[in-house]
């Protein structure tokens, strides 16, 4: 993996952030500006009143309080301040401050009156911004968090009655009350200059249509790549569409990312609340897991838990027992096992066909009684109804009075029930072993949404690069690319993303494709030596062509970034073996790299 394009000069899309001190000051001023303006106005008015009092008395005149009040009030309209003779410092300050405060207030009032028109005018001057399509719960969370971090945000929302529109505008977010599927509206949002487009509308087809329109518009971009992130609600459709994430090589100005809150929510749940803190513990017994609700989240929870447990099962042959409660539990388990065959090897399923969302839900029957004789390690409640989920949690806790495992309850953070858990003192008393998990709030964060498949793979590529270079004796900091991902310059990050973009191209050249991960042993797949050689040569050719396009040229000796010369800008056959090995390394690691983000290779053509 010699260069990975890690020193390419092309700059990729980035989200520009304002300095933290400026963001804090801006938030403070936005929250308290009217109070500050009022205090300054009152202070200036008092100074003006005192100043006129002193001035009139110095002239031997005796003005009434009403006259002094009227004279001071006229200062706000640039009248009565032009007086002859010396004036006191109070009047001097007042006749400067009062007109300024009045003018500032007038500007604010005008801005409030024509706020939307002014914000739309800003679209002609912004670039590298984030466009969010859809202002539901997911869109609002993303827009508000990104804006608080200092990013420039444009929201497109079709529902003009959405109450979050005013909240966005108060935060300085530009809102277009239009249909994001229409090409003209995406162009109006200055898509051609944006860094990111995030489509989080409620309908999968709407998000897909937005992506198609954005792809067409982005072909006219003159710089950088548009990163298009779309949310697909149906996990099965999401699985099918994820292959499109590797088409960026064909469309260099457009990069597609697909995310699903249920899949990501399951990963976070397992990471934070695993069955065991250490799966390889010597004291490991047959684990038991209870899943109430086998919807989208429940299915993903079972899949990811089974995949993790499969690695342990291969060494200790201990099966994971999973009791699944759902109105169609047996059928859903059969479908999961059909899609993921190794689930049946490492897991023992006990289906209970009943609807846990019914008001009369009580645990359960003789099957559950037998299950309860063994220690339950974790209970995951994945119901769509908040009230039913909480009722299930209480019922299970009461039923398991002598066996109190943690009960992980999935529910929206903004629900009334979820707010009960926000009071730690009360929640410790009422819900001491019931742990809430806010699905939307935990999964709809900028880092998780924007940091999708390409970002995960790009970071993995860089980690492998560092590992291989350190093994060769190159020290951290010795080269511009020998730093952690967080410290890596933006253009070098984009170079790693570009390498991810053309993974499909390299695989296609040897008759392989990419599909969602089904075979949990696929990370151990090995290409033949001729296949490795072919992909390594393509990697070198791709790197060399991009360097030449960016003005680099061949020169012997060490690389010179300032003069854009490099000794490896020569055909593959002329490269030393040591340099060729650097391109072979990522080809060897490709199956493992893809498995880390939920993909595997498969052969579709035999030469």
Task: Give an account of the 3D structure.
There is one protein chain. By secondary structure, this protein is an alpha/beta fold. The protein folds into 4 domains: 20-115; 117-260, NAD(P)-binding Rossmann-like Domain (Rossmann fold), CATH 3.40.50; 265-443, NAD(P)-binding Rossmann-like Domain (Rossmann fold, 3-Layer(aba) Sandwich); 502-603, no CATH class. The chain is 49% helix and 12% strand. The protein is built from 24 helices and 16 strands. It has helices spanning 20-58, 65-74, 89-113, 115-122, 137-148, 164-170, 183-188, 204-218, 235-241, 261-272, 296-316, 329-339, 343-346, 366-372, 386-399, 416-421, 424-430, 439-443, 446-450, 453-471, 490-501, 503-509, 529-549, 577-595; strands spanning 130-133, 153-156, 174-176, 196-199, 226-231, 254-259, 288-292, 320-326, 347-353, 378-381, 406-411, 434-438, 512-516, 553-554, 565-566, 599-603. The strands form 4 sheets. It has a 6-stranded parallel beta sheet, with helices on both faces. Strands 9-8-7-10-11-12 form a 6-stranded parallel beta sheet, sandwiched between helices. A two-stranded antiparallel sheet has the order 13-16. Helix 23 (529-549) crosses helix 24 (577-595).
């Amino acid at each position: 993996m010699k260069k990975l394009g890690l020193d390419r000069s092309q700059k990729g899309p980035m989200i520009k952030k304002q300095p933290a001190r400026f963001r804090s000051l801006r938030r403070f001023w936005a929250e308290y500006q009217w109070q500050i303006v009022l205090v300054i106005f009152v202070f200036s008015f008092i100074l003006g009143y005192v100043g006129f009092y002193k001035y009139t008395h110095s002239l031997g005149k005796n003005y009434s309080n009403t006259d002094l009040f009227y004279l001071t009030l006229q200062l706000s309209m640039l009248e009565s301040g032009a007086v002859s003779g010396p004036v006191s410092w109070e009047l001097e300050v007042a006749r400067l401050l009062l007109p300024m405060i009045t003018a500032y207030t007038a500007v604010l009032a005008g801005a409030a009156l024509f706020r939307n028109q002014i914000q739309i005018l800003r679209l002609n001057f912004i670039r590298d911004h984030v466009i969010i399509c859809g202002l539901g719960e997911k869109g609002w969370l993303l827009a508000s968090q990104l804006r608080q971090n200092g990013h420039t945000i444009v929201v497109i929302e079709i529902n003009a009655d959405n109450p979050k529109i005013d909240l966005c505008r108060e935060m300085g977010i530009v809102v277009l009350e239009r249909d994001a599927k229409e090409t003209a509206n995406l162009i109006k949002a200055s898509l051609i200059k944006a860094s990111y487009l995030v489509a989080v509308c409620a309908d999968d087809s709407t998000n897909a249509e937005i992506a198609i329109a954005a792809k067409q518009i982005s072909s006219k971009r003159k710089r950088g790549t548009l990163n298009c992130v779309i949310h697909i609600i149906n996990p099965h459709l999401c699985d099918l569409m994820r292959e499109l994430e590797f088409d960026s090589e064909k469309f260099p100005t457009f990069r597609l990312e697909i995310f699903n809150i249920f899949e990501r929510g399951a990963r976070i749940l397992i990471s934070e609340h695993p069955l065991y803190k250490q799966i390889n513990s010597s004291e490991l017994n047959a684990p038991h897991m209870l899943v109430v609700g086998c919807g989208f989240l429940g299915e993903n929870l079972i899949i990811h838990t089974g995949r993790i447990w499969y690695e342990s099962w291969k060494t200790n042959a201990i099966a994971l027992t999973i009791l699944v409660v759902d109105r169609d539990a047996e059928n859903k388990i059969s479908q999961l096992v059909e899609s993921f065959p190794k689930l049946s090897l490492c897991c023992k399923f006990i289906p209970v066909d009943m609807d846990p969302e019914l008001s009369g839900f009580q645990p359960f029957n003789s099957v559950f009684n037998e299950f309860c004789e063994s220690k339950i390690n974790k209970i995951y409640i994945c119901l769509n109804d908040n009230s039913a989920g909480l009722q299930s949690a209480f019922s299970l806790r009461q039923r398991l009075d002598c066996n109190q495992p943690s009960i992980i309850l999935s529910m929206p953070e903004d629900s009334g029930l979820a707010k009960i858990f926000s009071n730690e003192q009360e929640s410790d008393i009422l819900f001491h072993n019931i742990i809430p998990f806010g699905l939307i709030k935990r999964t709809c964060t900028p880092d998780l949404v924007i940091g999708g498949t390409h970002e995960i793979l790009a970071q993995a590529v860089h980690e492998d690069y560092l590992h291989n270079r350190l093994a060769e004796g190159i020290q951290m900091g010795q080269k511009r690319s020998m730093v952690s991902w967080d410290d890596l310059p933006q253009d070098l990050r984009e170079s790693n993303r570009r390498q991810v973009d053309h993974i499909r191209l390299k695989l296609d050249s040897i008759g392989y494709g990419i599909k969602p991960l089904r075979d949990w042993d696929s990370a151990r797949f090995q290409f033949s030596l001729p296949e490795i050689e072919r992909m390594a040569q393509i990697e070198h050719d791709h790197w060399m062509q991009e360097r030449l396009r960016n003005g680099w040229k061949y020169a012997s000796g060490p690389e010179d970034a300032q003069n854009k010369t490099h000794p490896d800008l020569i055909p593959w056959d002329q490269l030393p073996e040591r340099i060729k090995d650097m391109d072979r390394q990522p080809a060897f690691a490709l199956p493992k790299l893809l498995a880390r983000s939920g993909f595997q290779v498969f052969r579709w053509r035999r030469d």
